[in-house]
Design brief:
six-stranded mixed β-sheet, four-stranded antiparallel β-sheet, 38% helix, binds adenosine-5'-diphosphate, binds magnesium ion
């Protein structure tokens, strides 16, 4: 479990800065638990603190106040940091910032060597990871030859090879075109059927996270609320306040409801289409 307790975080914190009323924390009194196997979405405007919290979760940054612990390991405990960093992996927006190898195989092998994966098992693990994400490229393919979508799948393969228990995707699809984005999300769900991990998904596209277990809404460094997608989708005002736009079919469902047509709250795109076809 991830346990975030009353965590406040300032970049470049110093005592003087904190006392300066003009200096705002990136995160303010955040308390949150994330359970093993959960699929949660961090949602909110740019600058609301989602990425900062991600960095705290894998110990790249440490809380200024409060604690973050991963399976009982507190991130401020130096001795525990390697364990935390291994357990919690992040895929960022721009895959190129994360790619270190010249070839696909090297890129995945690099991380494995780094964590001391047995040398004789690396080749197998690289092949396993490529296969897991359905990357249609052999190991010798230069990374520079991959499309944007393929690069992002490679980034996913490289972190999954490390067997993380928590995977954070921080706007990992934002550089992809809609087709590549849908493919990436489909791949991710396929992977989750084969190998279970906690997924923390950060996005501006609500339609990518309608099947999450929980949405966590951020505003100005605070967690405003958390709840199931079905519940939070009903609160259009709150979503708007957090800079979020409902998937078009949810907006349509809302309009139909307003005009007196009975549309269930937790309807998905497919069900809405069926309902419309039946009623026409
Ligand atoms: N490296 C940094 N140094 C200083 N301030 C930062 C840095 N990264 C983010 N911030 C600030 O921290 C706050 C939260 O940002 P961030 O966590 O990146 O939000 P989000 O990921 O939700 O867009 C914002 O006010 C942002 O300007
Ligand atoms: Mg961010």
């Amino acid at each position: 479990m991830i346990d975030i307790r009353n965590t406040t975080f300032y970049y470049n914190a110093s005592q003087d800065d904190e006392e300066d009323a003009g200096h705002k924390p990136a995160l303010s009194h955040v308390s949150l638990n994330i359970s093993p196997g959960e699929f949660v979405a961090f949602l909110g405007r740019n600058g609301s603190g989602k990425s900062s919290l991600s960095r705290l979760l894998n110990g790249i940054e440490l809380p200024t106040e409060g604690t973050v612990s991963v399976e009982g390991h507190v991130t401020s405990d130096k001795a525990a940091l390697p364990t935390v960093r291994r357990a919690v992996q992040i895929v960022f927006q721009n895959p190129e910032n994360q790619q270190v190898g010249i070839t696909v195989g090297e890129d995945i092998a690099f991380g494995l060597s780094n964590i001391g994966w047995p040398q004789r098992d690396i080749a197998n693990r690289v092949a396993w990871a490529i296969n897991l994400v359905g990357l249609d490229a052999d190991e010798d393919r230069p990374v520079t030859n991959l499309s944007g979508g393929e690069k992002q799948k490679l980034a996913l393969a490289a972190v999954l090879a490390l067997a993380p228990r928590y995977l954070i995707l921080d706007e990992a699809t934002s550089m992809l075109d809609p087709v590549a984005r849908r493919q990436f999300v489909a791949t991710l769900h396929e992977v989750r059927k084969q190998y279970s991990f906690t997924l923390i998904y950060i996005t501006h596209h609500l339609e990518e996270v309608t099947d999450a277990d929980r949405w966590i809404l951020f505003q100005s460094g605070r967690v405003v609320t958390s709840g199931t997608p079905a519940d939070l989708m009903e609160d259009v005002r709150l979503l708007q306040d957090c800079g979020l736009e409902l998937p078009y079919y949810q907006t349509l469902a809302g309009l139909l409801r307003e005009s007196g047509i009975a549309v269930p709250a937790a309807i998905n795109e497919h069900e809405l289409r069926e309902l419309l076809c039946k009623s026409s």
